[in-house]
Structure formats: structure tokens, C-alpha cells
Design brief:
The protein is mostly helical. The protein has one domain: Alpha Horseshoe (Serine Threonine Protein Phosphatase 5, Tetratricopeptide repeat), CATH 1.25.40.340. It is 67% helix and 0% strand. It has nine helices and no strands. Bound molecules: adenosine-5'-diphosphate and magnesium ion.
């Protein structure tokens, strides 16, 4: 099945799927956050996306869905990741507002603007061993599909794959933001929890668009 636009229904399915996947991976994400953090990332993500799922509004407006998700994440998740993911979804909402239909070009712009907002909020760049190392390559991959005239289905697959590669690539990195940065060189050799949850969230989108 190929999909040429994203609808409010797709976005609701995305968030529900992400909530399921993050819940299934709660222990794994918390384990990643143990050696280089405070072992709460799985709990934070589960709580946040369950709250987001419960807050999903009805209707045909994708921006309203993304905005409700942002608000739930900001209010329900303590720690660094909640406000940062909230910032991400708020920026998606902002881009979705003007986009009708929400096609591949709008999606590419949304992912680019969302990661730019997270960078600004967290004062972080690519290579600092954070969620940006998954979110940024995902946006780049989506834009590349858009430039090549691809479909939304191809774009979200490419974005998920790039995010997964980006998360894996955080293993040797030196953490330069967040709690992991307190460890200095000892942060090397561990995969970043936030990059990992970001890859899961984008994989959930790809799966929903693919009808899985
Ligand atoms: P906390 O660190 O407050 O316990 P979490 O454990 O839920 O919060 O989230 C940790 C993740 O947040 C990290 O793995 C990293 O990906 C992300 N993160 C932390 N600080 C930043 C930042 N300044 N910019 C981007 N991402 C960050
Ligand atoms: Mg933590």
C-alpha cells in the first residue's frame, strides 16, 4: 500500500503505535539509560506516550493532533526528553497547520523544522550523542525522498531506517548534552537512550503508513 498524504487518522494511529512500542521497550530504554543516565527513560517515554494517546483529539486536522501530543509530552514527562519531544511535536504541528494536504514535501519540511526546534531548545547539534543523532538523519532522508519525487510511504521508511542507523552510530560518541555528558569519556561505548526512542517512534510511523 502506498500513501501519498498523511491524515489526522494516520497521526493518531502513529501515536498509539508508538505508545505500544515504547511500552514494550520500557525495560530496554531504561537499561540504556542506566550506565549513562538515571535509568528513567523507558518510564518517561511510556508515561508520555500513554498520556499522548489518551489526549488524542478527534477530527480531521493533523495539526490539532500533533499539538495535543506535544502538550501531553510537555506536561506528563519529567526529565530532559519530555520537553524536547514536546518541542518536536509542537514544531510538527506548526508546519502541519498550513499544509493541506500533508504531502511528502510538507512532511519533509515538518521533520526538518522539528529537529531544528529541538536543536535550539537543547542547544545541541548532531554528533553530541542525543536524540538529534536519530532525528536529524531521519529528516535528511525524508527530504531526499521528496527531492527524488518519492511517496510518503518511501519517505517514512527511509526516515525510520536513517534514524535507526543514527541511533546505532551514537555508541562510540562522547556525550556532550544531558546527564550522559557528566560522564565524559565514560559515556563512550553506550547507545544513547533518546536516539533509540526516537528511532522507535519513527519506525512506528513507517509501520503505520505501511499498514502494519
Ligand atoms: P533525563 O536525562 O532528564 O533523565 P531522559 O532519560 O528521559 O531524561 O532522556 C534522556 C535523553 O534525552 C538522552 O538520551 C538524550 O537523547 C536526550 N537529551 C538530553 N539532553 C538533550 C539536549 N540538550 N538536546 C537533545 N537531546 C537531549
Ligand atoms: Mg534519564
Amino acid at each position: 500500500m502506498t500513501q501519498s498524504v498523511l491524515t489526522a487518522d494516520t497521526l493518531r494511529d502513529w501515536i498509539r503505535k508508538a505508545a505500544d512500542v515504547l511500552s514494550e521497550n520500557r525495560a530496554y530504554l531504561t537499561d540504556l539509560d542506566s550506565p549513562i543516565g538515571d535509568a528513567d527513560h523507558g518510564n518517561n517515554m511510556q508515561r508520555g506516550f500513554n498520556a499522548a494517546s489518551a489526549a488524542l483529539p478527534p477530527g480531521e486536522d493533523p495539526a490539532a493532533v500533533a499539538k495535543a501530543v506535544a502538550m501531553a509530552l510537555i506536561s506528563k514527562v519529567g526529565g530532559a526528553a519530555g520537553p524536547l519531544y514536546g518541542t518536536y511535536f509542537l514544531a510538527l504541528a506548526k508546519r502541519f497547520e498550513g499544509a493541506a494536504p500533508l504531502d511528502i514535501d510538507a512532511l519533509a519540511s515538518a521533520l526538518e523544522e522539528a529537529v531544528a526546534a529541538v536543536k535550539k531548545r537543547g542547544k545541541a547539534e548532531t554528533g553530541m550523542k542525543t536524540m538529534i543523532d536519530a532525528l536529524d538523519p531521519a529528516a535528511v532522508a525524508c527530504r531526499m525522498e521528496a527531492t527524488q519525487g518519492g511517496t510518503v510511504s518511501l519517505a517514512v521508511q527511509a526516515a525510520a531506517k536513517a534514524a535507526e542507523a543514527g541511533a546505532s552510530a551514537t555508541v562510540p560518541m562522547l556525550a556532550q548534552r544531558g546527564r550522559a555528558s557528566y560522564l565524559g569519556d565514560r559515556s563512550k561505548g553506550h547507545q544513547d537512550p533518546g536516539a533509540t526512542s526516537s528511532a522507535m517512534i519513527l519506525r512506528a510511523l513507517a509501520d503505520v503508513v505501511a499498514g502494519r
